[in-house]
């Protein structure tokens, strides 16, 4: 890791795929970056570790899918457990949970407005959701 600016990585956890996005080095903008095939928690942690190392990441933001009421359901608990695994596996890297309510729906709307075909939408919706999640996190840091 360098002493200069580094990136933030956001994860949108799904049953089949984990969408991810990265910030620019200054932490101003989020770019959709890809998906990982979701496997076992241990293999997912290793895949995220590889991303952290290859992209000079200083912080990982994990989408926390709270219920509309703001309470934590089973999916939110799974995200919390995964964030805990990442904290143990990535010493020196901050790992934060961030409310991701409705980011997947927002991503689908953006892709629909952009006339992205259905098959392509399925391929990119997870990374787009991660980018929306990350941009909201970045914006909150600048405003706060």
Topology (SSEs and partners):
Elements: E1 7-13, E2 17-23, E3 30-37, H1 41-54, E4 57-64, H2 74-89, E5 94-99, H3 103-113, H4 118-143
Helix pairs in contact: 1-2, 3-4
Question: What does this 3D model show about the protein?
Answer:
There is one protein chain. The protein is of the alpha/beta class. It has one domain: Nucleotidyltransferase, domain 5. The chain has four helices and five strands. Strands 3-2-1-4-5 form a five-stranded mixed β-sheet, sandwiched between helices. The longest helix has 26 residues. The model has no long low-confidence stretch (mean pLDDT 85).
Percent helix, as a range, is 40-55%
- The H-level CATH homologous superfamily, spelled out, is YqgF/RNase H-like domain
* Helix-strand string: EEEHEHEHH
Shape: globular
- Strand content bin: 25-35%
Look up the CATH topology: Nucleotidyltransferase, domain 5
Beta strands, count: 5
Query: Can you tell me the residue ranges where pLDDT is under 50 for at least 5 consecutive residues?
Result: none
Mind telling me the CATH class?
Alpha Beta
* Residue-averaged pLDDT: 85
Output the number of helix runs: 4
């Amino acid at each position: 890791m360098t002493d200069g600016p580094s990136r933030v990585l956001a994860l949108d956890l799904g049953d089949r795929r984990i969408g991810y996005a990265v910030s620019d080095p200054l932490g101003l903008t989020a770019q959709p970056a890809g998906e990982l095939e979701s496997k076992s928690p241990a293999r997912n942690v290793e895949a995220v570790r590889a991303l952290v190392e290859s992209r000079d990441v200083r912080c990982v933001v994990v989408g926390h899918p709270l219920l509309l009421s703001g309470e934590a359901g089973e999916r939110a608990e799974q995200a919390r457990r995964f964030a805990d695994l990442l904290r143990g596996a990535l010493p020196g890297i901050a790992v934060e949970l961030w409310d991701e309510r409705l980011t997947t729906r927002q991503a689908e709307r953006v892709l629909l407005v952009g006339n992205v075909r259905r098959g392509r939408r399925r391929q990119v919706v997870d990374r787009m959701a991660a980018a929306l999640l990350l941009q909201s996190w970045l914006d909150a840091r600048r405003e706060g």
